[in-house]
């Protein structure tokens, strides 16, 4: 009997907790938090324990599948690549490069091989039709951050360990452990905030788990965040509370913001957002008059019609109250690797641009190199030049995760060819012609590329694989290079490692010039993402710069720190102006694109609120659509219920535990009612990511309690016009009880 202990980073949500995993004869016997981990200090949530279920899941794909006569059949890797080489190039040759689209989902953000090599496939395709989950949940925050600070991932993060006041809007970090803010054990940090005399205030249409531990909770009408935030900014100007503090010399646009918010008096905004006038003013005063304070907003604020404007106004408030780049306010992480705001000339840059191309059918602008994923169905359906006829999906399930999934499912059935990289036959991959399986997380190395740029504390952590992959299973980066080679006409038989060596040599020459040969020699023992990581660490802000700073970081040093919980690089510190990458070298408080969008909100200020609207919600036991097949997480009370306030239940004739029809125009779903006074009257909550009852899927545990697909109720034409993000909340619906024997 052989026993061993391994330490790794959990890949199942943004918290990135450190784990201690014990094996006996190659099988997982326990998973617990790693007490020494420099980021999470022993904290884990139920998802981490389910890694064992995920690795052992009999439904997880372990060999490539090719669809023949409508049925998936196992194949070898060579057969799968040959099938792709046979069918994909003719589509591209006949219809052009834009006839092939590609989507990527959230799990790729937790896999360094997928995240760093996906772009190589996208560039090989040369298509404008690139889509991701970012336009379902976070593009407004990325765009607002990019316009203000100069880069898409320069996100201002609450200094949770030192603040005295934290205002949370449309976020539930006690359940999510942060979203675009990596903050494991938020409950513990909120408790510490209170212990040092601080306050937590939550603004949300539901009395969430976070709201229940807060000092105060205020209901807000869904989609009205922009009105509340603009009225708070108005209050700052009206009451002389604006104070830029140490960033005063680095801020442009204060007077333009003053003019833009003039219509948004608290009196005008109060009816629209459902928050009293005096409460709006008091929130602004508390933020301005507390020495160390921050305001944070996330998914609920992003997934609405004014997502970008609301995200922008959050950082306008933090800036105007002097809390940006301040200890106890909001700060910017300094990542050990891959962060654009730590490379190049400090304090100035190109900034961000949008609209470099537009969607063929809707005209929606490109943002961060991609189009809104809600445009995908129409791009497949609509005939004409550049009509999408083939599709790659990478760890992506838009049939469940995107609005109007039934429409997208129908569209996928009309494609000439579809390839999916995924570990399941799910609601989207069931439409594929070829499925290429990925590795179990326990079979893969782990280094977070994005999340240290969003973390509450600076750190560097690396996890080696816990278990070996199956014989013949390629690494995911190798699969992506093979696909890119097929697209480029190099053939399915090409050597992925040789391709990688050649590309690395080209990149080294471009980046290091006369020092390229030395860099190649110094990294010759490494391949794929490990080699990329070595270069990123050594040239990063803490790196050894290939021997110039011997005390600096290298990959070997980070690997060696794995058993002791990684390398702690300290608390976040002020970084302005060094981290700015705007062309002006200033914080752009008044981007013209957002001033213009605020005018749209001005016209909507006095609109009447609908009688009943729907929002999503998050559960600690799931993350989007792909964790409902794991027994550890699926057990317990049924969670896909429609929460309804007692007053609404009474007027609509709904009873607890019964079924109800929810309708939005011609779209309708049926869900189980759960009466709850945690809801704001006039608001219904149904969780996102369910609906596992589609034929052809192979998710047996999930199918036992499939739940209701909220997104089937939503219109794929509704989006924030600035960022292209889907509108997932604040949507007007009707609701009625299901009469016994009645069918949809």
Short description:
Among the domains are: 156 residues, 3-Layer(aba) Sandwich (Rossmann fold); 231 residues, Dimethylsulfoxide Reductase, domain 2, CATH 3.40.228.10; 125 residues, Barwin-like endoglucanases (Beta Barrel). The chain is built from 27 helices and 29 strands.
Runs in which pLDDT lies below 50 for 5 or more consecutive residues are none
CATH homology-level superfamily of the domain at 139-332 and 338-345 and 575-603 = Dimethylsulfoxide Reductase, domain 2
Radius of gyration of CA atoms, rounded to a whole number: 25 Å
User: What portion of the residues fall into strands of 2 or more residues?
Assistant: 15-25%
Work out the helicity level.
25-40%
Distance between the termini: 56 Å
What spatial order of strands do you see in the largest sheet? 5-4-19-18-17-6-7
Shape: globular
Q: Calculate the mean pLDDT score and round it.
A: 96
By DSSP (H or I, 4+ residues per run), the number of helices equals 27
CATH class of the domain at 139-332 and 338-345 and 575-603: Alpha Beta
Count all strands and give the number: 29
Mind summarizing the main beta sheet?
A: 7 strands, mixed
């Amino acid at each position: 009997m052989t026993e061993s202990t391994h330490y790794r980073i959990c890949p199942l949500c943004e918290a990135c907790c450190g784990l201690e995993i014990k094996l006996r004869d190659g099988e997982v016997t326990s998973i617990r938090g790693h007490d020494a981990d420099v980021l999470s200090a022993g904290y884990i949530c139920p998802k981490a324990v389910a890694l064992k279920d995920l690795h052992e899941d009999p439904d997880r794909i372990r060999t490539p599948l090719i669809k023949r006569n409508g049925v998936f059949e196992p194949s070898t890797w060579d057969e799968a690549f040959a099938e792709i080489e046979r069918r994909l190039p003719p589509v591209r040759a006949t219809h052009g490069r834009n006839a092939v689209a590609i989507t990527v989902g959230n799990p790729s953000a937790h896999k360094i091989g997928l995240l760093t090599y996906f772009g190589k496939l996208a560039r090989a395709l040369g298509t404008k039709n690139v889509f991701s989950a970012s336009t379902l949940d976070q593009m407004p925050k990325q765009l607002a951050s990019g316009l203000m600070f100069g880069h898409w991932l320069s996100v201002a993060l609450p200094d949770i360990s030192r603040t005295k006041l934290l205002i949370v809007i449309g976020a539930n970090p006690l359940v999510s452990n942060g979203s675009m803010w990596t903050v494991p054990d938020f409950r513990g940090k909120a408790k510490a905030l209170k212990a040092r005399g601080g306050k937590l205030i939550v603004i949300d249409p539901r009395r969430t788990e976070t709201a229940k531990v807060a000092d105060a909770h205020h209901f807000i009408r869904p989609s009205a965040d922009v009105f509340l935030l603009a009225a708070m900014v108005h209050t700052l100007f009206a009451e002389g509370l604006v104070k830029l503090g140490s960033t005063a010399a680095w801020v442009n646009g204060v007077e333009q913001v003053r003019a833009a918010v003039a219509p948004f008096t608290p009196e005008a905004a109060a009816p629209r957002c459902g928050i009293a006038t005096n409460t709006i003013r008091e929130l602004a005063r508390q933020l301005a008059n507390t020495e160390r304070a921050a305001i944070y907003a996330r998914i609920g604020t992003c997934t609405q019609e004014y997502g970008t404007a609301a995200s922008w106004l959050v950082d306008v408030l933090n800036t105007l109250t002097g809390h940006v780049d301040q200890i106890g306010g909001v700060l910017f992480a300094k990542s050990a690797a891959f962060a654009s705001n730590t490379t190049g000339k400090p304090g100035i840059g190109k900034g961000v641009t949008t609209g470099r191309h537009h969607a063929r059918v809707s005209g929606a602008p490109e943002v961060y190199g991609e189009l809104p994923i809600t445009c995908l169905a129409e791009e497949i359906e609509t005939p004409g030049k550049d009509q999408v006829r083939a599709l790659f999906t990478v760890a992506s399930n838009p049939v469940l995760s995107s609005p109007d999934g039934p429409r997208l499912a129908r569209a996928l059935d009309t494609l000439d060819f579809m390839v999916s990289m995924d570990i399941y036959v799910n609601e989207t991959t069931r439409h594929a012609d070829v499925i290429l399986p990925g590795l179990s997380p326990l079979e893969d190395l782990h280094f977070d590329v994005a999340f240290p740029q969003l973390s509450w504390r600076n750190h560097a952590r690396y996890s080696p694989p816990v278990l070996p992959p199956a014989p013949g299973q390629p690494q995911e980066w190798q699969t992506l290079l093979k696909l890119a080679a097929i697209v480029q006409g190099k053939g399915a038989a090409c050597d992925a490692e040789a391709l990688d060596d050649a590309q690395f040599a080209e990149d080294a020459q471009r980046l290091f010039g006369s020092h390229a040969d030395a860099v190649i020699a110094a990294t010759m023992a490494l391949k794929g993402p490990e080699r990329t990581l070595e270069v990123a660490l050594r040239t990063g802000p803490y790196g050894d710069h290939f021997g110039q700073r011997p005390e600096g970081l290298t990959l070997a040093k980070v690997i060696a720190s794995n058993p002791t919980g990684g390398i702690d690089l300290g608390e976040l510190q002020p970084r302005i102006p060094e981290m700015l990458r705007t062309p002006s070298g200033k914080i752009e408080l008044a981007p013209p694109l957002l001033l213009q969008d605020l005018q749209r909100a001005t016209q909507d200020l006095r609109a009447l609120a609908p009688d009943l609207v729907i929002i999503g919600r998050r559960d600690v036991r799931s993350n989007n659509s792909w964790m409902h097949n794991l027994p550890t997480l699926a057990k317990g009370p049924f969670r896909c219920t429609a929460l309804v306030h007692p007053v609404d239940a009474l007027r609509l004739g709904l009873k607890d535990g019964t079924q109800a029809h929810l309708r939005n125009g011609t779209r309708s779903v049926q869900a189980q009612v759960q009466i709850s006074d945690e809801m704001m009257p006039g608001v219904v909550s149904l969780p996102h990511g369910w609906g596992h009852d589609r034929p052809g899927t192979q998710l047996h545990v999930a199918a036992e309690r499939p739940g209701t697909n909220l997104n089937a109720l939503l219109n794929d034409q509704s989006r924030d016009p600035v960022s292209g993000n889907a509108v997932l909340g604040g949507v007007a619906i009707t609701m009625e009880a299901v009469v016994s024997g009645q069918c949809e």
